[in-house]
Amino acid sequence: MSSPNAATRQLRYVDALAEAVSQEMARDDSVFVxxxxxxDHKSIQGSTRGLLDRFGPERIFTTPLSEDAMTGVAxxxxxxxxxxxxxxxxxxxxxxxxxxxxxxxxxxxxxYGGAVKVPMVVRSMIGKSWGQGAQHSQGLHSMFMHxxxxxxxxxSNAYDAKGCMMAAIRDDNPVIFMEHRLLYSTEAPVPEDPxxxxxxxxxxxxxGDNITVVGVSNMAVECLRAAELxxxxxxxxxxxxxxxxxxxxxxxxxxxxxxxxKLLVVDNSWTSCGASAEIASQVTERLGGSGPLQVRRMGFAxxxxxxxPALEQLFYPNPSTIAEAAYAMARPNGASxxxxxxxxxxxxxxxxxxxx
Amino acid sequence: xxxxxxxxxxxRLYRSLYFIRRFEERVAAIYPSDKIKSPVxxxxxxxxxxxxxxxxxxxxDAVSGTYRGxxxxxAKGGDPAAMMAEMYGKVTGSAAxxxxxxxxxxxxxxxxxxxxxxxxxxxxxxxxxxxxKRQKTDRVVAAFFGDGASEEGCFYETLxxxxxxxxxxxxxxxxxxxxxxxxQSKRWATDRFCxxxxxxxxxxxxxxxxxxxxxxxxxxxxxxxxxRGEGPALIECHAYRWREHVGPNEDYDQGYRPRSEMEPWExxxxxPRIAALLPEAERAAIEAEAEVAIEAAVVFAExxxxxxxxxxxxxxxx
Lengths: 356, 318
Hints:
The complex is a heterodimer. Chain A is of the alpha/beta class.
């Protein structure tokens, strides 16, 4: 390394989150972290590790199991000039906060004519596998995308996790920060110094000509593996990770689709009224009249998430099903193709090596 | 009780009380003209609570009100012209025409924004109080809400959190016995409200007299405690909503409550009672001054422009 400022090292997603928060708390006294378990010995899978020792119990503290009121507390503190980070160990628990998030956090700046700001980060983690089931697995981002006034981000790698967290903390608006449990152990080169990943700028993870694939949250990683499999059969994927869903960089996606004329959106949620529907419809509105366009969405099966692995594996898109779907779109006149499932399965353990 | 009050304080209280009463009566008078396109929840009859509480606060203390929040806004020093303009939907309104009567705010007067979703502002007020405590100030927050709001889960969640963290917040329950049209007897298993709250370790006071001075004295005593960091307190203050839930009229002909319930409150109305404590000339001067200011607020509202079309998209994000 020529200069310490340029120093990067492989860092896990979970450690990148903790580092971002720690650096922002050191920079800005108004930042504090609260939520059930943020100060216990497990420290939210390690994502708040070290913060209590460094910043003390006034800035890192647990809460009663009162998600509704605690969200209000965050909003009130934010209106008074602080920058709260409210942590939820599962995204499903945000349903207990909907009144405060939707009726107050999202609307306050507008409804009060710009008189107040609500700079707060709502951290939430999505679970998957090992029996997470109906109420520990939900990707509820589209519910928040629906409401003006909320920003929604879903970083898929450690580099974006740190940069998005720093941007979220510095943002003057409420930011719903969607994390994925299975991404926590994935590593990427992460700068030691503070930096921000700007919202509203998608990342092109792979450049390709045959089909545009958009992957949201950990589905970006699953799509990356699918693209590797597709390369073996000479299908090249233009793979895009939106990173932030609100604001959404539809320009980058639409420019890609203008070239490929084929769009597959893979979301870590249900497709109905979801982020995938939004992305597909925005692209269709832009490009629909300009020539043939092929659009497909993939996401959770339209069921509640089951716990048994026998059914759960059918609930989610995976690199094999994504590759199969993309191949069918890219080679509509060819024979159907599905990668060897054993080969594809390795993708779950394969570590992300971004950023791109 | 009144003997300890200097003429200056009595005059100040009357100035606020009379102003709010007349301001809302003016709103009610304008309402049929359809110039105010905003659902109004009048506090007429309940103003003494806001006046008593706010008079015991400092200007740098904050209040959090409700959609029935005209009184708290005005009593805390919220700008009446901006409020009237807000109800007219004008760009000069307190929320630049985006909030209306139910979302009044005045950051200069430390009036936090009001909400139309019952109970929603209670935890927000506690969050504000948390920030004041973390910022090592001795400022406090008074959070107004109604008896209906006390039925929301977030109320109890907030009591617990505020007591646990000894937050400088005074909870003020304006108990007018009705949630929209439903009487308390159909909503509460018991009326031992203060006892419920006290189990959180929160000091409570119940005021049933309708006496503005009792409200002010009680607030002053509890606010001292808050400033010393001794944790939150609550006042349950009985009152009666003279007008309909929403709108400018009386509604005793609707059959859900008899006028006889209101009459004792009308008979001990604080507006004439406190007026009578003042020398006639001073009373008349205060009233004349209020009428001028209210007229000025109406003129300001009427003459202010509506927001330009492009304003629709402003302030979605900060």
